[in-house]
From TrEMBL:
Coiled-coil intervals, chain numbering: none
Transmembrane segments: 12-29
Pfam families documented for this protein: Methyltransf_11 (PF08241)
Entry keyword annotation includes Transmembrane: yes
Gene Ontology MF: a single term: S-adenosylmethionine-dependent methyltransferase activity
Top-rank lineage group of the source organism: Eukaryota
Domain Methyltransferase type span(s) in chain numbering: 112-192
Key words, A-Z: Membrane, Transmembrane, Transmembrane helix
Name this polypeptide is given: Uncharacterized protein LOC120278050
Protein source organism: Dioscorea cayennensis subsp. rotundata
Length: 241
């Protein structure tokens, strides 16, 4: 009788030992599989689009270990040295020269760039000697662009001298988008928008009509990095038209 119980207990403990070992194997396997998978993923998506998106907060130490080892600074300097970056910045720099000539921009201007992507315009303004340049977009792109909703800018009224954006066409609510630029730019300051080429007066008027308290300064057809665009500059005068 005692021997029977002894044998039964032995079998039960053996069964537990086997189950425990299997469970351990399972955990080990699952972990290493997901680790190598995300590593694999990273290689394939190591493009500019990947770098703009947020790295999710690591859910486990395994995730953390497979995160890109490239520091944001290194990553940015690599982007900055690319030809397309240089070309994009150079095109904007020559556009900004026009704003200087029109006395809408100086080295002491406080500038807001909305929907600025990776920050070409921020770089172009800074390189031209402007110190106080803020770049925002829905997705942050360090070090030049921080995260803010263009439709709900986290800035006080009247704090900027110039608002610049190439993002109007991508805005979900154009009226709100323009309204926020008008609100944050001081009276006497300007808002400069680069939009798809306006082929008619009506198209210009439809952009102009989004403004509530500004008047038209300039409309010009420009070529920006091989794209036919139109520059529309409005002066914020605080009066409804
Ligand atoms: C603006 O700053 C740049 C760079 O510091 C300088 O070269 C340029 O002369 C300045 N422009 C004016 C008008 O002061
Ligand atoms: C811009 O170009 C379009 C044709 O692409 C033309 O209809 C329009 O008048 C031009 N606007 C200006 C301000 O020159």
């Amino acid at each position: 009788m005692d021997r029977h119980i002894q044998r039964l207990l032995n079998r039960i403990s053996l069964a537990f030992a086997v189950a425990g070992t299997l469970a351990l194997f399972h955990v080990f396997f699952k972990t290493s599989v997901s680790c190598s998978y995300s590593g694999h993923n990273l290689h394939h998506h190591d493009t500019l689009t990947q770098t703009i998106s947020h790295s999710p907060f690591p859910r486990s130490s395994c995730d953390a270990a497979s995160r890109p080892t490239l520091l944001p600074d290194r990553r940015f300097s690599r982007i900055q040295s690319s030809r397309s970056w240089r070309r994009g910045v150079a095109a904007l720099s020559s556009l900004f020269l026009r704003l200087r000539t029109a006395h809408l921009l100086s080295n002491s201007s406080r500038i807001l760039c909305v929907s600025s992507g990776a920050g070409h315009e921020v770089a172009a303004f800074r390189e031209s000697g402007v110190v106080d340049v803020t770049g925002v977009d829905l997705i942050d792109f360090p070090p030049l662009v921080s995260r803010a909703d263009p439709h709900n800018l986290p800035f006080f009224d009247n704090v900027f001298d110039l608002g610049f954006s190439r993002g109007l066409s991508g805005a979900l609510f154009p009226v709100r988008f323009v309204g926020e630029l008008e609100r944050t730019v001081r009276k006497g300051g300007a808002v400069a928008l680069v939009v798809e080429r306006c082929g008619s007066e009506e198209e210009v008027a439809s952009v102009k009509g989004l403004f509530r308290k500004s008047s038209l300064v300039e409309v010009s057809n420009i070529t920006l990095s091989d794209s036919q665009m139109t520059l529309i500059v409005m002066r914020v005068n605080g009066l409804s038209p």
